[in-house]
Amino acid sequence: MSTRARRPHRRHGPSGFTLLEVLVALAILSLAIVVSIQGFASGLRLLKLSGEHQEAMLLADLKAREITTPTQAGRDTGTQGPFTWEREVKQVVTPDLDVDGRTVKWRQWEVDVFVRWGDSRYVSVATLRTVAGDGEPRQTRPAP
Fold first, then answer.
1. CATH number of the domain encompassing residue 37
2. What is the pTM of this model?
3. For residue 90, which of 112, 105, 63 has the smallest C-alpha distance?
4. Given 19, 78, 117, 132, which residue has the most CB atoms within 10 angstroms?
5. Per-residue confidence in pLDDT tens, the chain, 144 aa
6. How many domains, in total, are found in the chain?
């Protein structure tokens, strides 16, 4: 047998990582961690914003649904939590429904609700309500 077969196998060159390789690996790892933390923080900000937006839309919808059968135009305002709301009710002009000498069967109303919060955030909801008229004959033009 030869002596070559009995010798233990030696590694040639240094073993392990150099300090420079370790520093580069740590820099890449820390950069990846910072980017992922910023991504999570951005996601949390968007989640908070969408929650506020959803709550504002629910409030606007609630305030619009409170007016079921409007009888007069008007404006209401109020505050609920961080939200400030404004509701405006106005009669819609419907010349096709207003005929001289005929009783008014229907009136149409527009309900607009604006909800504001924060510095520049707002949502708005607009809807129409049709209610039975007052039953009185309506004069649209003065009689000659």
1. 2.20.130.10
2. 0.68
3. 112
4. 117
5. 555 556 666 666 667 889 999 999 999 999 999 999 999 999 999 999 999 999 999 999 999 999 988 888 999 999 999 999 999 999 998 877 777 777 778 888 999 999 999 889 999 999 999 888 764 545 555 545
6. 1
